[in-house]
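Trying the structure run again after the queue cleared.
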Amino acid sequence: MGLCLILPMVSNLIRYPQQMSARYREIAVFRPERTFGESLRRVVLYAGYNLGPDYLFLRGDRHILQHPAGMGQLYAAQAVLVSLGIAFGWRRKEWRLPLCLSGGWLLAALLPVALTEPNLPGSGHSLRGLPGVVPWQLWSGLGLIALGNLIRHRFARWLVRGVLVGWVIFQATGYFGYYFRDYSRDAARDFNMIMKNMALAINPWKDRYPVIYFPCDFSWPYLYFLFFTNYDPHLLQQDFPDREPGLFGDVSRVDKFHIVCNVQEIWGSGTPGLFIVPVHEIPDAPPLAIVSGLDGQPQYKLIGRDLL
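Done. Tokens:
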């Protein structure tokens, strides 16, 4: 069944190798301009990021888009349980094969991490390393079994288990408290949360100006304009976006929306249009509208210059 499910992907990979591998070529460790030795060094280094205690038990993935700050990918208590589980399981002959198989699972799960560039230097990648969750949980469960076998006294056994459970609850309370209270605010920029407010602020003004200039500070901003301004898909099919070469080339124009990195320079040249800029830029121009973030603080403003 699994092979049947991947047959369409295999077929497309054979028929369209350049398109199907475009994303991997963009993030691949092995590249023509890099020596094999340097690539191999990076493979070992990136795999090590996902096995380090900083990633597993302390800070986790440092990219806030993929992991809220405050704890590792696993609970700190699991550092004890995993160590106990592996040591205890290896002492039993019948458990060695399952341990080896789960270890192989973890190594296989490291391949997507090891063969691609991380989002942030020095950080593991929680999305690409997600299949590795399974062996860590299995070894943690084995650690609980180990506690039951190593501690014979019933009261001491339950005391140790209670301490571990309490440790997990304490850490989880802080983590989920942050996740549901502050994370949306801290990660708002990475999730482009302000883009909805920006698109809605543009709506009343977009028909007045022939061109709209938007800064290139965000990821794929034109998608938000198209969605929140209810752009007609038929028009998009008649006027395709301007974009750089390649399957993942940056889009620089969709209809009258121009995504540029020199908004101030264009404004200074006297060009007419609607401009979206940070609130502290171009202070002499009176704003048509102010765009606030999730915290209610002004972040961007709309300024306009009509045709002479």
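Strands lie at 212-215, 242-243, 251-254, 257-260, 273-278, 289-292, 298-305. Worth checking whether this holds up in the mutant runs.
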